[in-house]
Amino acid sequence: MKFLVAYNGSTESRAALDLAIKHASLFKANVFVITSMEGGHSEKPKDIARVNKELKRVRQQFEGSGVEHDVYEMARGLSPGEDIVIFARENSIDQIFVGIEKKSRTRKLLLGSTAQYIILKA
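The structure assignment produced for this chain is given below.
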């Protein structure tokens, strides 16, 4: 089996990662962890450094777990939701783990929801 974790370093995505690791150890699954940034001029060096620090923490979390894993940082000019869905299709992912942050209706309307996009499109 192949599991995918949409990871952005939030408390919710950390919980999704914890759950994916537990399930992967039970089902002998491979876990793919993806952080997606749109890339280009919109990315600031401090944001890239934060992402690298988070992904280092993710790799350390897997150490000693016995779970096969791959960690990716993507910057392909796509939204995070698009990156996750495309990666899932290209790699025949069986299950996607997403942390869901509660947002007001107005905030969802203005900012969109990566989790909602993944749920609807995957």
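Interim note for the steering committee: Residues 1 and 29 are 5 Å apart (CA to CA). Strands lie at 2-6, 30-36, 69-74, 95-98.
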